[in-house]
Every structure is written in C-alpha cells, then in structure tokens.
Amino acid sequence: MTATATSHRSAVESGRAGFGQVLRAEWTKFRTVRGWLIATAVAVLIMVALGWLTGVGSHSSYDNGPGTPTVTGHPYVPLGPDGEAVNDRFSLVHRSLAGDGSITARLTSLTGAQVLLNHDDPSAPSETEPAPVQPWAKAGLIVKENTKQGSAYAAIMVTGEHGVRMQYNFTGDKAGPTGTVSAGSPRWLRLTRTGDTLTGYASPDGTNWTTVGTVRLAGLPSTVQAGLFAASPVVENVSQHLGGGGRVTGGKSQLTAGFDNLTTAGGFAGGDWTGTAVGSDDAQGLDQRGGFQQDGDTMSVSGSGDIAPDVAGSGDAMEQTLAGVFGTLTVMVVLGVLFITGEYRRGMIRTSLAASPRRGRVLAAKALVIGAVTFVVSLVATAVTVPLAEHILRGNGNFVYPVTGLTQLRVIVGTAALLAVASVLALAVGTIMRRSAGAVATVIVLIVLPYILAIAGVLPPGPSQWLLRITPAAGFAIQQSLPAYPQLSRAFTPAFGFYPLAPWAGFAVLCGWAALALAAAGYLLRRRDV
Amino acid sequence: MRSALHAEWTKLRTVPGPGALLVAAVALTVALGTVVAATLTCPAQGCAANLDAAKTSLSGVQLGQAVIAVLAVLAVGGEYSTGMIRTTLTAMPRRATVLAAKAVTVTGLVLVAGAVAALGSVLAGRLILPGNGLTPEHGYPPLSLTDGPTLRAAGGSVLYLALIGLLSLSVATIVRDSAAAIGLVLGVLYLFPIVLHVISDPDWQRHLQQIAPSNAGLAIQTTVGVPDLPIGPWAGLGVLAAWAAGALLVGGLLLRLRDT
C-alpha cells in the first residue's frame, strides 16, 4: 500500500503579483517618503528661481549714438515673413515691377573691403581698406516685396566662397554652380517672376542656362521691387574664456560687385534705378554704406550687411531661461539613485524581491514611477519658468528670439523628458552600483561635466562637439531653439548654445545611455544575490 | 585627539573604498588633464593670447574634485548609513573632536593624493604641450614648478582639492545622508559655472564669479591675465576656504546639538 503526498498549494491568486500591483507598490514607496516629496518641490523651485535670476540678471539698453540718452531696450530686430529674427541690411538698386517680369545681368567682379570704424566720430563717413571677399558676402539679383526690413524676397546671387545660391525669405538656401567670379570667368544670372513663383537661373555664357531653384512666395503683392543688391556680413573673431563663455569681436566688411549686360523684361517701371540702403537709419544714406554707379547697362553696387536669419548676438535664446535644469537634474538624480539604493541600505530590497520575485518587473516599475514623477514635476517647472523668465527678460529690455509654438513646446516638454530619462539613468546606475554616493557622483559627472567642459571653453570646439555627440550630455541638444544655418559664417559651437546633433538625435543618445544602463541593471539584479 | 585621529585613520585604512577612490581621483585628474592638453593645438603663427598652459594641464581637477567629494562625503555619510556613528560617538563622546579628527584625516589623505595628481598633471602638460606648438619660440617655456605662477597653480590645485574635501565632509555632517550630500556638493560646484554662462549682465557675472566656490577657488590655477580676473588667485581660494569653514562650523554645531 502506498500513500501519495500532495504538496501544499497556496489559495492566494497568483495574479496578485501582476505588474499593476508592483507599480502601485513602488508609487506608494515614493509618495510616502516625506523627504522625497520635499525634494521634488525643491527641484521645481530651483528651476523657477534660476530662471528668475537669469531674467533679473540680464539688462539691455542702448543709445542712438554719442550724446543721445541711453534707454532700456534693444535695437530694432527685424522679423522675417515666418516670424523669425533676421538680418536685413544691404544695398539695393531697384525699380518697381508690376506683374510678371524678368531681370538678367552678368556679374564680372567681386571686390572685398574692410570698413574702418572712426572711433572719434562714429557718424563720419567710414573709410575702407582692401580685404579678401568674405565667404558669405553676396551680390546678385533680387525681387523683394518692398524695401522694408524683413519683407519677403527671393534672390539669385554669387557668394564669396560658396558659389551661386538661390536664397529666399532668409532661411531658404539652394546651392547652384560652384566657383567664384572674375573678369576672366564672369557669371550670368537671371531672376524671373511669374505670379508668386520666382525662378533663379545661372549661366557661364548667357546662352546655356541652368535652373538653380524655383520658389513660391505666398502672398507676394502684384507690385514688388526688383533689381541688384550687394551685402557683406560682419567679420567675426571668436575667443573663448575659461568659465566665462566666449567673446565675439569683429568689424564690418564691404562688397563691391560689378555688373554689365543689365536687361529687364516684363512689367518693370521706366525711369532711373533707385539706390536704397535697406535697414539703414535715416541719417545714413546709401552713399555712406556703399552705393552704386551706373554707366549704361554697366553698374557697380557696394554694400555691407547681410540678408540672412539672425540666430545670435541680438538677444537671448529662450532656452537660456532654463539654466536651472542642472539644479533640478541634480535633485532628480539623487532621487533616482535613492529610489533603489535606499532599499539596499535598509535591507528593504529583500522584502521587495520576496514580495514580487520577478526582479525585472520591480526594476521596470521603479523606472516607470521615477520617470513619470520626474517628467510631471519637471514639466510644471519648465512650463512656469519659460514664460516667467521671458517676461522678466523682455521687461529688462532684452530681445528674446521668437520661435514657433512647436519649437517652444519641444524645448519645454523636451527638457522635462530629458530630466525624466536622466532620473531613469540614475536609477539604473544606482541598481548597478548599489551605493548612493558613488552612483550620484557617477551620473552627475557623466551628464554635467561633459557639458561644462564643452561650453566653458576648457576644450577646443572640435573635442567639445565630440563630447556632446557621445556622452549623455548630448541630450541637452533638445533645448536648442535656434537652428544653426549653414549659410551663416558664425561660430556654431557649444559655447554659444549650438549642439553638434539635432535636438531629437541628441535626446536619443541620452535615451541610449539610459537603455543600456537599465539593461545592465536588469541583468545584474537578476544575477546577483540581494 | 591622538586616539581619535588613530581611530579615524584605521577606519579609512581598513576598508577598500577610500584607497580605491584616492587612486581614482589621481588617475582621473591626470587623465582628463592629459586629454585636454592633447586636444589643445596651437597654430604655427602663434597661440591665442589667453592660452594658459598651466591651467589647461590642471583642468583635470574639474573631474578629480567629484571623486574627492565622494570620498569625503562617505567618510561621514558611511557612518550614518550603517549606524556606525552611534558606536563612534559612544566611544568618543566629544563630538567636536570626532569631526576634527575626521577632517584632519581626510584632508591629509586628499593633500597627498592631490599632490600626486597635480605633479602628474604638470608633468603630462610638460611632455605633451610642446608637441602641440606651445614651444619656447611661441613664448611658452616647458611647464616647471620652479616658475612662480605654475607652482602657485599646481600647489593651489592641491589646496583646492583639500578644501573641496573639507566642504564635502561638512555638508555630509549637516545632511547626514551620502546621496543628498554628494548631490548638494556637486550641485554647488557645477551649477555656478553654468549659471554664469547664461547671465549676460557683466556686474552680476563678476559678483557670481567672486562668490562661486568652484569659480573663485579655481582662480588659483590662472597664470595668464591674472589682473583681469574677477577675483585674485589667493583671494579666490580664500572664498572657497570660507565656504568650507562655514560648512564645517555649521556641521560641528549640528553634530553637537542633534541626536545621532
């Protein structure tokens, strides 16, 4: 006779250890520690306080020349057709064009010069001395809505070092044939208007034409200004200082362009060509900043300035109000690490893992809780800080670069997402190291130190950009609100807030780090004893 | 005090953590200094006017200070997390003496490690920089500790690290939690340089540079353009010393007044 023994089976439903249950347990752990709730409040306060400090710590004032009173505010910054800040100062030689038409000219020479500032009397006519043509100095044919700064335009041009370009509405830029212009190898240009469509052509000989670009300027009025133009941007020399960012020095440059074989067709008004210094103050006519000389169908146009987007130097970018992100980051990293190391320290981890033995689930629940809490808390902080600090900045006379609502949303929400991912990274590193101090220091150093080394001028621009490509600090790219336009000869370096990676690409690098760390943490949590 | 010192020394000596952290501090400081020096290039026509060879070589301190901070925080925070602090204070009820002994022991260790790190960094700069165009012909003699400003930069970096250690130890005594303490210390050290970068008002910038522990303290590393600094090298180190002394005072008071 044999007896069969049945093993005991618990009557409790196995569904108790479902993910929802684990998640709820972790959320309870977080919300019932009073110190952590205080810390999240502090994290919000730091962001808001530093945003406020950025606002009150930045003042802008200007005067209209010696002897005039200094007023709070900033010099006028024109806005382009799409609302972005632009540079729009150049020499324009134009006639009215009603309806369709076409203008053709041969560009035979480009001559550069440096404008010398007269420090004793800034209002005196400036003198020039010969200098190389600036890489983005430009001259050619243009059709512009009117002679006001920031109005819509399309232009076909030859540049100093970037060949023929078709540019329109400040941000648009299409490349054409390469090479520069000389008497031996002139360049024919043609700009045709049909309704609101403009087409730019280039030709080496005036017979064989290639289309450089066709653009549609929506809402272009029937009567526009069309003609020739010349512009040469400010020369920039950048020097960097340890701890204090960079300094830009430079001077005005000038470009003189020689045209011949100038012909027009279509609805051009008769009469003489008019010279206008677009963007110049009333006191300064075209003669002072350049000018034009006409002899039959031959014309020479000189100009300084630029027709391009303005992304630095006139004011503050909106993300500068979010300097407090580093303070908030520090707090959230401490919380992320403590969320797991606190359990190791108290031995609580044994209870947690005994209650829900599927360790991966526990880690996932913790990551979800700390990530979500950080995201919500940070979103409150950024959503309050940006409008508040922008308001104070404007009140102090600063110009804040306008950006589209979508970009604004990306910076505000992206910063919160960045902090959430950083807190998950902290949780993962805490799980790997099981010690608070070491883990906190590791995560802060991983995220913040590369950023400091890159922006504070410790490293040269090349290595700085590499740091911001491969370290978790790449994630800060999501805060960059102004794009780095290739058609500007500016120092688009980290020290000036320009990241080597696109916003979401940089954020993806940070996410990659967090994912790797979380995978390693999950593996170690399963393999190790507690 | 002798026995207190001996006790603290035994605590630090007999666990592997502090030793490993000291080695890491030296290695990371020299490594970052070497990398920064190696990336620095000087075109043939001459370097930028504000290039500071000594400061460049010693820039690894930016990283080394984080490790030193961890070491110093753990010297106190470790006792709180394990409850060892109760045993310590039972054995040595004079709490000020305990804190002083900890401060002396940690500072001594950091001074030794900092000296090794600074020497290694200067040596690395001396070997690397001439190859990058910082040659005597361009006005950059090889880095040498016999040169007054370079000696000040190197020696000052050692003192800077020691003061960071003292500050971290005091903060840990105040907050009694390693994670919070290290977050606070690194937050203060790294946040100021970033805020400085954003604020555009020159007066505010100057004042912040004068009071920020990391910026003012690291003024000691400057050997080029010293008169243009917002705060002099020794005065800057004094600011950091004031931060450390203030924190130590508060930490000592709280240690006396609070239950453990």
What attributes characterize this protein structure?
heterodimer, A: 530 residues, alpha+beta, Jelly Rolls, 14-stranded antiparallel sheet, two-stranded antiparallel ribbon, elongated, B: 260 residues, mainly alpha
Structure description:
In chain A, strands 4, 5, 6, 7, 8, 9, 10, 11, 12, 13, 16, 17, 18 and 19 form a 14-stranded antiparallel sheet that branches. With 530 residues, chain A is of the alpha+beta class. Chain A folds into 2 domains: 18-57 and 315-483 and 492-527, no CATH class; 86-309, Jelly Rolls, CATH 2.60.120. In chain A, strand 6 and strand 7 form a beta hairpin. Chain A contains 10 helices and 20 strands. The longest helix of chain A has 37 residues, at 359-395. With 260 residues, chain B is mainly α. Chain B has one domain (2-257). Helices cover 75% and strands 0% of the residues of chain B. Chain B is built from 11 helices and no strands. In chain B, helix 2 packs parallel to helix 6 (95-128), helix 4 packs across helix 5 and helix 4 (61-82) packs parallel to helix 7. At the A-B interface, helix 2, helix 4 and helix 8 of A face helix 2, helix 4, helix 8 and helix 9 of B. Chain B: It comes from Rugosimonospora africana. Chain B: The chain crosses the membrane at residues 61-82, 103-129, 149-172, 179-199, 234-255. Chain B: Keywords: Membrane, Transmembrane, Transmembrane helix.
Short description:
Chain A has 530 residues and is of the alpha+beta class. Chain A contains 10 helices and 20 strands. The two termini of chain B are 21 Å apart.
Distance between the termini of chain B: 21 Å
Which value, in Å, is the CA radius of gyration of chain B? 20 Å
Overall pLDDT confidence of chain A = 86
Low-confidence stretches of chain A: 240-246, 282-289
Please give the most extensive interface between any two protein chains, plus how many residues each contributes: A-B, 47 and 48 residues
- Classify the helix fraction of chain B into a percent range: over 70%
Helix count of chain A, per DSSP? Answer: 10
Order of helices and strands of chain A: HHEEEEEEEEEEEEEEEEEHEEEHHHHHHH
Number of domains of chain B: 1
Beta-strand residue percentage of chain B: under 5%
Q: Pairing-aware structural class of the strands and helices of chain B? A: mainly alpha
**Radius of gyration of chain A, taken over Cα atoms and rounded to an integer in Å:** 30 Å
Q: What is the quaternary state of this protein? A: heterodimer
What helical percentage do the residues of chain A reach?
Answer: 25-40%
Major beta sheet of chain B, specifics? none
- Compute the number of strand runs of chain A: 20
Distance N terminus to C terminus of chain A?
Answer: 46 Å
What percentage of the residues of chain A does DSSP assign to strands (E)? 25-35%
Structural class category of chain A: alpha+beta
Q: Low-confidence spans of chain B: pLDDT under 50, at least 5 residues?
A: none
Query: Count of helices of chain B?
Result: 11
Protein name (chain A): ABC-type transport system involved in multi-copper enzyme maturation, permease component
InterPro entries (chain A): ConA-like_dom_sf
Keywords (chain A): Membrane, Transmembrane, Transmembrane helix
GO molecular function (chain A): ABC-type transporter activity
